[in-house]
Amino acid sequence: MKKTAQRIQDFQKIPAINDIPAPLWLRVRDAPAETIYPEHAHAWGEFIYAFDGVLEVNIEQIHYLTPPPYGIWLPPHMQHSGINRNDVTYCTLYVHESLCQQMPQRAGILLTAPLVPSLLEHIRSHHLPDHDPEYLRLLQVLLDCLTHAELVGSYLPTTQHPALAQILNHLHEHPADDSTLEELAKMINMTERTLARYSQKELGMSLHEWRQRLKVMKAMSMLNKGKTIESIALDLGYASSSAFIYMFKRWMHFTPDQFRKLYQGS
Fold first, then answer.
1. pLDDT digits (tens, 9 = 90+) for 20-72
2. Nearest to 219 by CA among 54, 72, 73
3. Residue 99 and residue 92: Cα distance in Å, rounded?
4. Residue 220 backbone phi and psi in degrees, to 5
5. Each residue of 119-159: pLDDT tens digit?
6. Which residues of 46-80 are buried (b: 16+ CB within 10 A; e: fewer)?
7. C or N terminus of the chain, fewer CB within 10 Å?
8. What global pTM score does this model have?
9. H helices within the chain, ranges in order?
10. Distances (CA, A) of 93 to 1, 163, 180, 220, 250
């Protein structure tokens, strides 16, 4: 754990936006791997959405990690920092404090409707000028959609418990690992029962559920990159594509192909 923390400290720092030129303003950025945004706060709200890759944002000591099609909402004046372990292309909608009354007053993940990614992709691909009437209308529609989105806690919680964090890091790096709970517990010299108890206490869910969510996140990122269902299933340790599709549909309520069509317009 100490080694991991030291490595993150060595990541390249990326400057944050220090001023916004309009009450509603959107910017698309490419962040290279192994970069960080040092802790800071703004007088405006932010909705952060990844087109490709997974966002990691630490907000007042709570870690939020989410892939598309979900986004992260930060109310005004909230301390936060960001980590980009891998390349990520994302956008940020900056919302002036005067326009945040209908937005959630706490940070979290917004479960957006399919219209939100479509609007963001349209804005991204058309490169509209900041003062273009169409651009301003789209931003207003986007804000209206976000006011109706459901706010949830971290989709994939993390922990400060060293032994449990070791297991989570291992699973992040090896999502196809099919070790049993007992085998994982032995890796950290813990009993199966103790590991199960710590998982429920620290993560708010069983380790099995956490692993399923991790696979969903990995799958969404790979789907966005255009990988085939067969290769994704193999990368995640499934014996068949049908087993992977069943898992994905169980958690997302639609198939991987439906996800691709909904959120990428393909």
1. 999 999 999 998 888 888 888 999 999 999 887 777 888 876 777 766 678 99
2. 54
3. 15
4. -60, -40
5. 999 999 998 898 999 999 999 999 999 999 988 777 778 88
6. bbbbbbebbbbbbbeeeebbbbbbbbbbbbbebeb
7. C
8. 0.67
9. 2-9, 115-126, 133-147, 162-173, 181-187, 192-203, 207-224, 229-235, 241-252, 256-264
10. 34, 37, 42, 22, 31
| Cα 72 to Cα 139: distance, rounded to the nearest angstrom | 17
Q: Report the chain's mean pLDDT, rounded to a whole number.
A: 87
What mean pLDDT do residues 2-28 have?
A: 79
Is residue 161 packed enough to be buried (19+ CB in 10 Å), middle (13-18) or exposed (0-12)? Answer: middle
Place of tokens 């909904």: 262
- DSSP SS3 for 64: strand
Is the CB of residue 116 less than 8 Å from the CB of residue 69?
A: yes
Which CATH fold topology does 2-152 show? Jelly Rolls (2.60.120)
Longest dimension (CA), the chain: 62
Nearest to 174 by CA among 237, 123, 220, 102: 237
Cβ(69)–Cβ(114) below 8 Å: yes
- Domains of the chain, by residue range, sit at 2-152, 162-264
